Amino acid sequence: MNEYKYSLDKSSKKFVCPKCGKRRFVRYLNQISNEYLEETFGRCDRETSCGYHNNPKQNECIAIVNIERINLIPDFIDPLLVKQSLKKYGNNNFAKFLHKNFAKDEVENCIAKYNIGTSKHWEGATVFWQINQTQKVHTGKIILFDEDTGKRVKNPFPHINWVHKKIKKDKFNLKQCLFGLHLNKTRVATTLQYHCNTIAIVESEKTAIIMSLFIPEYLWMATGSKQNLKLQLLEPIKNENIVVYPDKGEFNDWNIKVTELQRQGFKIKCSSVVENSDFETGTDLADIYFAMKKNTPKNNIAIVSSDTEKKIQRLSKINPSIISLIETFDLIDEKGNGIFCRIMEY
């Protein structure tokens, strides 16, 4: 069976339909780049009452194209572009958002650690560079955020672009890597800096950066998209202890992938802490931590813990060292799930 460049997303994730306004909309996905097309391209599952279906034009077969791409040597970005972007943070909306919510020295250290850049592509835009453990630059993702909310600017269109597209390099063979992968080499040299040598993986680069400020004991990385939790990107950290934190609504898909990675020898677990929260679909770990920080009662904030985690929380009040014991030995509960040890107070 032939595959096509654009196809409907096969995961369980649904978006708000542009016609009927219901969260039953399945978007089209670029099978080569693993990126969603514009928000108007997709199909509403409410076929009888809505029937909205906007499919992309010139949808070419890529069965042969994929075979050719496998044998191509990946292209990289000139590291000089990274260096040139590491400035003008007063004109970087995401950097300004971080400064509004965290201490100045913490933000500056985080910006330097993750090589957060500033882009002129849109006024106030940010660049998240994908740099591997040998310091080669795979690409950079350009995103525009709102400096007050920290949310992506989606109107009048999603403000996301790529450096390799912006420089218009002909036939650029993109092979993505985990955002934050370059820090793994540093971590190996300074293992005491991070707790239990644990690498924590989330979906978005923004979430990884924010969580590195909330919980600096862990090394935070990001897949860049929910489709990127796969062997190709995680291979460089196969021998590390890994915990992934999918966004609300993505647990089942990520847990299936984690199970397969476990079969291939990965020391990896999938946390259900976000999935078990009372937040809406699409919430990520950083959203929960910000809500806890603000202690907003109107959101009815609660993280539903497993029975094991509830017992651990009670015991930790008597003997706090039990948390260190669980994290040190990477213990799991009776169902084989990772235990979310950090006691959250709200």
TrEMBL record:
Residue ranges of every copy of the DUF6371 domain listed in the record: 92-248
One protein family per Pfam: DUF6371
Zinc beta-ribbon finger putative domain segment(s): 4-58
The protein, known as: Toprim domain-containing protein
Organism for this UniProt entry: Flavobacterium fontis
InterPro entries: DUF6371, Zinc_ribbon_put
Lineage, top ranks: Bacteria, Pseudomonadati, Bacteroidota, Flavobacteriia, Flavobacteriales
Entry superkingdom: Bacteria
